[in-house]
Amino acid sequence: MRIRPEKDGEQAVVWKINQEAFGRAVEADLVDAIRASDRYVPELSLVAETDGELVGHVLLSYVRVEPGGLPVLQLGPLAVLPAHQGRGVGSALMRHALRASDAREEPLILIEGNPRYYGKFGFERSTRAGIDPPSGVNGEYFMARKLSAHNPAIKGQAVYSDAFLAAG
User: Fold this and answer.
1) Are 111 and 134 in contact (CB under 8 A)?
2) Which residue from 63, 107, 158, 162 puts its CA 20 to 30 A from 168's CA?
3) pLDDT tens across 12-22, in order?
């Protein structure tokens, strides 16, 4: 398995991976909306490739922390084709996403998801990192992972991008 940035021309395959993984189009449409926004980071739209087939995708994009509007990374969605789930594809995508974000000297990554799953990768409640969840988001499922360049002065409330809000 190889993890690499998504290439031009792979958008339709990435859409299909997200749609099949979640069994609906919401997350797939979210990826397209983020891709079209100013919060998109092309090198952090990562795919998992096995034998020439794309089988997984993870996206990191920017959200803001208010006050101040500081951009920080938000991970999601993370998707693996159903036939390839349970084989370590999602974990490989997560590990690569963490390393790539750390290499960019990003301070932290936020995520909304299952604490049992994401806790394995060092995510904990975002409030422990001084970040309150976006309005309307259950704090139990909103987490942060501090990276090497973490700055404890980054504090406030996460504010989703328009793309996230439109998908909600």
Assistant:
1) no
2) 107
3) 999 999 999 99
- Distance in angstroms (rounded) separating the CA atoms of residues 168 and 156: 22
The model's confidence at residue 168, banded by pLDDT at 50, 70 and 90, is low
Q: 2-167 — its CATH code?
A: 3.40.630.30
- Locate the domains of the chain by residue range: 2-167
Query: Residue 69 pLDDT > 70, yes or no?
Result: yes
Q: Could you tell me which residues come within 8 angstroms of residue 51 by beta carbon, excluding any fewer than 6 positions away?
A: none
* Rounded (10°) CA dihedral 93, 96, 98, 99: 180
Q: Find where tokens 């995708």 sit.
A: 57
Task: From 159, 152, 157, 161, select the one nearest 131 (Cα to Cα).
Answer: 157
Supply the pTM of this predicted model. Answer: 0.95
- CA proximity to 59, closest of 38, 42, 80, 76: 76
Helix axes 11-22, 26-35, angle to 10 degrees: 150
